């Protein structure tokens, strides 16, 4: 197998895509469980307000798919670390104890740790010339 070098920006962007796919499927599976068991979704507070907040919070990792490819090194590192940590908090805070959610959330959190560690260890490309 050929050893192909992939830029850090592409790695981070691809990891964000994987996080988002898992988030989407966690929600789809949760809706299916609710429909089959005839349960009513228990959303605290005003549903419209909570969905507006969820829309904003969910868009952070979606936007990171693009930003990971276009931001400068410095802002790319900062945003990937901060949004990665924030998304972990969002996943845990909005989570459930359903088995499918625990599995998917564990994968999401593992991917987010990879994002955070990758961004943290990322060396400044401008400095690499002098190393």
Low-confidence stretches: none
Largest sheet: none
- Count of extended strands: 0
Task: Return the string of H and E elements.
Answer: HHHHH
Total domain units: 1
Structural class: mainly alpha
Could you give the distance between the termini? 29 Å
The helicity comes to: over 70%
The gyration radius over C-alpha positions equals 17 Å
**Alpha plus pi helix count:** 5
In short:
By secondary structure, the chain is mainly alpha-helical.
Notes on the protein architecture:
Pfam families: DUF6326. The chain has one domain (8-39, 48-128). 77% of the residues lie in helices and 0% in strands. 18% of the residues are buried. Helix 1 runs antiparallel to helix 4 and helix 2 packs antiparallel against helix 3 (73-93). The model has no long low-confidence stretch (mean pLDDT 89). It is an all-alpha fold and 131 residues long. The chain has helices at residues 8-36, 47-70, 73-93, 99-121, 125-128. It contains 5 helices and no strands.
């Amino acid at each position: 197998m050929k050893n192909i070098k992939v830029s850090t920006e592409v790695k981070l962007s691809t990891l964000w895509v994987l996080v988002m796919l898992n988030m989407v499927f966690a929600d789809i599976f949760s809706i299916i469980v609710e429909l089959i068991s005839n349960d009513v979704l228990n959303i605290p507070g005003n549903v419209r307000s909570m969905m507006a907040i969820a829309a904003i919070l969910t868009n952070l990792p979606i936007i990171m798919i693009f930003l990971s490819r276009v931001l400068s090194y410095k802002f790319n590192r900062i945003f990937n670390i901060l949004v990665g940590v924030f998304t972990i908090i969002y996943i845990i805070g909005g989570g459930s104890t359903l088995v499918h959610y625990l599995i998917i959330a564990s994968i999401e959190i593992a991917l987010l740790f990879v994002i955070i560690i990758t961004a943290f260890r990322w060396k400044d490309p401008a400095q690499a010339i002098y190393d």
